Amino acid sequence: MRTHSSAISRVAPQLIEVSATVPLRLRPLEIGDLLDETFRMYRRHFLLFAGLSAILSIPEAALSGFSYYALFSDFLQRAGPSSLSSTSGLLEAGTVVLYLVGGLITLALVPLFYGAVTYAACESAIGRPVTPSSVLSGVLRRYFPLMGYWLLIGLMLVAFCLIPLWIWIWVSWAVVIPVMFIENVGLGAAMGRSWRLVQGRWWRTFFTLFLMFVIWFIARTALRAFIVLAQSLLQLVIPTVAALWIAAATSVIVGSLVNPLLQIAIVLIYLDLRVRREALDLFQLAQRVTSPQPAQ
Questions:
Q1: What one-character DSSP code corresponds to residue 84?
Q2: Is 110 helix (H, G, I), strand (E, B) or coil?
Q3: Mean pLDDT, to the nearest integer, of 147-172?
Q4: Which terminus of the chain has a lower count of CB atoms within 10 Å, N or C?
Q5: What number is the average pLDDT over the span 98-116?
Q6: At CB < 8 A and 24+ separation, what contacts does 223-227 make?
């Protein structure tokens, strides 16, 4: 095992330890500073953040590719000879089963997809070494609270039918996940804690999240534009249905590379709220002053 770990560290040392040796220097962040720090943290740990996001998006990518394949195949069957109609029922039943299985797998991975990068960003911000195994164990310890949080957010969106009300509540609960990871509390306590932190700074939090969403959307659209171009070239050498399948799956994975920007930004918003409300930066400075200095 030790030999295996040393071999990995020689090939890809960032997979073994990617966080900074010192915690993030806390200070009040203006919106521009927060955006700059978000991109800086993503660049510093790109291999880990992008790798986690891409790997966890593979089931969704497979399901998306299969959806395009199934729709295209169904179109060909309906346009083809009537002799194919006898097997269409079996194919449709198999398609439904695969959709259900793929949907359940995607749902089961939601806590990991949205929690892994957030956990890694939290650990990096407070100066702890981050490895894939530590991220996995850290998220699994909070698996059910994370699942409950996202199910609650989704159910509220359906039940309220009022987007402004849903946005108001979601922004107030925007930093629930960093609270759970850093302060080691349950879902209920994290929701109350997030609400109190955002209170009085709701509009600032909303505009920061909105700006990050715009950046996320533009970057995601730009990356997917290259996929459309690649799809057009693929259709020249492989069948159209195969090109659609590959392009749809690749589009999901490439798009997932942008998702860490939002998750890192939420962690920085949480820290900024604590700095402004609780003077967390002064507490960090006091800890540095009182901690023993290493011998020269």
A1: G
A2: helix
A3: 85
A4: C
A5: 81
A6: 223/254, 223/255, 223/257, 223/258, 224/251, 224/254, 224/255, 226/254, 227/251, 227/254
Q: Of how many residues is the chain composed?
A: 296
Q: How far is CA 87 from CA 74, 84, 115, 242, in A?
A: 11, 6, 42, 21
Q: Could you tell me the two tokens for 131?
A: 């490895």
Greatest CA span in the chain, whole angstroms? 85
- Can you tell me which residue has the tokens 């107030």? 172
- Please give the angle made by the CA atoms of 210, 211 and 215, to the nearest 5 degrees: 115
Looking from the CA of 276 toward its CB, the CA atoms found within 13 Å total: 17
Which of 82-86, 205-209, 214-218, 219-223 shows the lowest per-residue confidence on average (mean pLDDT)? 82-86
In angstroms, the Cα distances linking 133 to 2, 17, 20, 137 are: 15, 11, 17, 6
DSSP 12: -
Whole-prediction pTM value?
Answer: 0.77
